[in-house]
Amino acid sequence: MYFVDASHFVLASFLGWVWCFVRLYVRAASGRQRYNVLGALNAVTHELVTEINTTYITATSVCALLRTIANRGMPIPVTLVMDNARYQRCALVQGAAKELGIELLFLPSYSPNLNLIERLWKFVKMEVLNSRHHQDFKKFQDAIDGCLADLTTKHRQKLATLLTHNFQTWGNVSLLNA
């Protein structure tokens, strides 16, 4: 079972906190360059399969990710848990999944708490972007790629506690009357 979603990293300055008695100037990147990572996270092994570009994530990108997963030659059926993004739910993606023997499971709308890969994207943003300045887009890309490459080695212990199968649900929550 893989959890699939895209993260759109934008080259910008992300402040962790700023508080001081004197004026402080913080360097900031200019422009709006995006680094898009479409990922599929294995729920058990925490292995990440990616499709990366600097333009847009489209149905074609999702189909390429499906082919990459299918080419791994898994001996058991593969299920991809996806949100309801248009480019994931279209006929092109569903046809490719059927052709490759991959089952697609769509989450309810507005439920990122049920998608395990959302925790991974939050972790990557905290490790790579928060309170850091990247001189140029190449260094920005290298920082993200380095973090993603180190997921199963350097960050393995942190991810073991972060990527558990405990999901937040709203079934047993008592809501106050307004």
Automatic annotation (TrEMBL):
UniProt xrefs under NCBIfam families: transpos_IS630
Keywords, ordered alphabetically: Membrane, Transmembrane, Transmembrane helix
Name of the protein in question: IS630 family transposase
Transmembrane intervals: 6-26
Domain Tc1-like transposase DDE: 2-140
Gene3D superfamilies: Ribonuclease H-like superfamily/Ribonuclease H
Family annotation (PANTHER family): TRANSPOSASE
InterPro entries reported for this sequence: RNaseH-like_sf (IPR012337), RNaseH_sf (IPR036397), Tc1-like_DDE_dom (IPR038717), Transpos_IS630-like (IPR047655)
Species per Swiss-Prot/TrEMBL record: Gemmata palustris
